[in-house]
Write a structure and sequence with these properties.
Helices cover 31% and strands 23% of the residues. The chain has a seven-stranded mixed beta sheet. Strands 8-2-1-12-18 form a five-stranded parallel beta sheet. The chain contains eleven helices and 18 strands. The chain starts with a strand and ends in a 9-residue tail after the last helix. The longest helix is centred in the last third of the chain and has 26 residues. A hairpin with a 5-residue loop joins strand 9 and strand 10.
């Protein structure tokens, strides 16, 4: 069996790793011109389902490394004013495992061959039931299954299910990261909390590694090379609906809305890495109508993109990867047909994926500020 995975995000890479470990050939095709063409590294919180899923997709020899490069989620989930006074609460605190997306992605890339600059131009089902993926550049690739793991703007979804389109919530946010130095240790009350300002909300999350990733890899898995990332604070400023930057850089956009704020909050933004700050829109994709069974399916944000306020996007993508991995292993071993295996995956994925989108949208209003 051969599987083609379009998209080198966490879900697609986890699937490829899981299939590789089971002896199933999996090729990964990424539209970006290089793996590091754009920064893709912010703090994520994995729940037990998401963490167990990525663990199951990785070789067991890397499990100790995975355990070493994560952190523990914590936070009081308070509502604070811009001077860091407590004015409310968001509800029960979340527990889970904190990971850095950039580091986890490099772990998942280890040992895989990824063809970059491979923007999908279309696909066709061949006479023998296989699927041929065509790319804007390079030769087409035939496989038994094409998996669209190519994100909210999925080219695979556009061809497979053109009626399923992203929905723009109108919410925009500026996101960045700042080294977690002793200077910002006093902000611990704000980690996991919401700072409610005049027309904006600021969310902070600490990424504290149990062991620095580069050092952990050198000690526990010499065949893995991980980036030299140190502890940091991920900050995200949510703007009013349909808000715009109104400034030349993300940092300036955030700082222009922080007059009179606590000096440590302003300094946190001032000292952030300008190369790793950006403005993003919150778009969702809701899985609704199933497509006809065939040798093409979808995974992760390509079919159920959630609002980040739900805290479940990466978790659901990794759950997809593990579920599809297990289904395809059954097909490869002859215990069921490929179409039955993919169909069973899709039935389950549609159910929990739709629920994840609903949950994330229900959580969004608590974080979105009123128009100033």
């Amino acid at each position: 069996m051969r599987v083609s995975v379009a998209g080198a995000g966490l879900g697609g890479l986890a699937l490829a790793q899981g299939l590789r470990g089971a002896g199933i050939e999996a090729g990964v095709y990424e539209r970006d011109p290089a793996i590091t063409a754009r920064f893709q590294g912010y703090r994520l919180v994995l729940n037990p389902v998401g963490f167990d899923a990525v663990r199951a997709c990785l070789p067991s020899r890397w499990h100790a490394l995975l355990d070493a490069i994560v952190g523990d989620a914590y936070g009081e989930r308070l509502v604070l004013d811009p001077r860091l006074n407590t004015i409310g609460a968001l509800g029960p605190g979340k527990t889970g495992t904190v990971v850095d997306r950039h580091v986890l992605r490099h772990l998942l890339l280890t040992g895989l061959t990824v063809r970059t600059g491979a923007a999908l131009a279309g696909y066709g089902v061949l006479a023998d039931g296989k699927v041929e993926a065509r790319f804007a550049h390079g030769d087409p690739v035939a496989s038994d299954l094409l998996v669209g793991a190519d994100g909210v703007g999925s080219a695979v979804r556009a061809a497979l299910s053109p009626q399923t389109v992203p929905i723009d919530t109108g919410v925009r946010f500026v996101i960045g990261r700042t080294a977690l130095t002793e200077r910002f240790a006093g902000l611990s009350k704000a980690f996991g909390s919401k700072v409610a300002g005049d027309g904006v909300s600021l969310l902070l999350g600490a990424m504290r590694f149990r062991t620095p990733p580069k050092e952990a890899a050198e000690e526990l898995a010499p065949d893995v090379t991980l980036p030299d990332v140190r502890d940091y604070v991920r900050w995200a400023m949510i703007l009013p609906p349909d808000g715009s930057l109104g400034a030349s850089t993300p940092q300036e956009a955030a700082l222009s809305r922080m007059d009179g704020w606590h000096p440590e909050l302003r300094e946190l933004v001032e000292q952030s890495d300008p190369d790793n700050s950006t403005l993003l829109s919150i778009r969702v994709v809701e899985p609704r109508e199933r497509w006809a069974p065939g040798p093409v399916t979808l995974l992760g944000d390509a079919i159920h993109a959630t609002s980040p306020t739900g805290g479940n996007g990466a978790n659901i993508a990794l759950r997809d990867a593990d579920l599809l991995r297990r289904s395809l292993i059954e097909a490869a071993e002859g215990r069921r047909s490929l179409l039955d295996a993919v169909g069973d995956y899709e039935r389950q994925m549609f159910e929990y994926g739709a629920e994840a989108v609903r949950h994330s949208l229900e959580a969004l209003p608590a974080y979105v500020p009123n128009r100033s």
